[in-house]
Design brief:
Two copies of one chain form a homodimer. By secondary structure, chain A is α+β, with helices and mostly antiparallel strands. Helices cover 48% and strands 12% of the residues of chain A. Chain A contains six helices and three strands. Chain A has a three-stranded antiparallel β-sheet with strand order 1-3-2. The two termini of chain A are 24 Å apart. Chain A binds a DNA duplex through α5.
Chain lengths: 122, 122
Amino acid sequence: MSISGDDSSVTPTALACCAPLSREPLGRERAERIAPLLKALADPVRLQLLSMVLSHPGGEACVCDLLPAFELSQPTISHHLKVLHEAGLLERDKRGVWVYYRTRPEAMEALVTLFAPETATA
Amino acid sequence: MSISGDDSSVTPTALACCAPLSREPLGRERAERIAPLLKALADPVRLQLLSMVLSHPGGEACVCDLLPAFELSQPTISHHLKVLHEAGLLERDKRGVWVYYRTRPEAMEALVTLFAPETATA
DNA sequence: CTCCGGCATCGACAGGGGTCAATATATATC
DNA sequence: GATATATATTGACCCCTGTCGATGCCGGAG
């Protein structure tokens, strides 16, 4: 809250965050493009999956790395990975028998900039 | 396996973003606490609503301000606002006949830090 | 007190989502 | 080819969600 401490001079947007959200009302089209990204992440298992892929050595992980961390069936994990993939958040890379997943920087950046304090260059 | 094949100096986590996600695998409990926040935002209408509240003068807006922007019924908008409210993203403030909504800084910060490059002050 | 207007709640409907067991596909090994 | 392993797909289940019309609640005006 007391980030810069200038409470007296009126915070214009009530928060120094989320420039794309607080600068001006989000348009319908843009909202409809971004919502699916959030929807894909709006599940505990998928949040963990993305985090596991991100934090895994090399920034990638195969399903066999991810499966043991959950008490869920293999098809269920496969389903969640598919959701993340179709949302554009994960890339698939089949190497031999294994399938490696890696985050897509563009999609991650879309999320980051959504909640970023400032667009910097703007 | 190209794990140790860091050809260049290289980003250790493949991205300089989302420290809470890329530093270490997200725990189940934490994932289950954050997912509802994302779930509340994972809808185009609610994304727009939050953005409209954030960008509205004074950082707050009453339902009467928000309604005309959508071609949805008043109960539907009321429902979406309730979802955002129950997720902890919006505060309600009834003044006279009107109800004003305002973002909850804590919840917004939770989202910002999720995708922030560094936890910094945490 | 009565009436009107802003907003919430209710009940119902159609569609979507998470999960599983069963099965399919593909790759490597023998 | 036959077999074993790693993922993906299918089909079914139940619960959750976005939407609406109808109604209820509450504060202000006459």
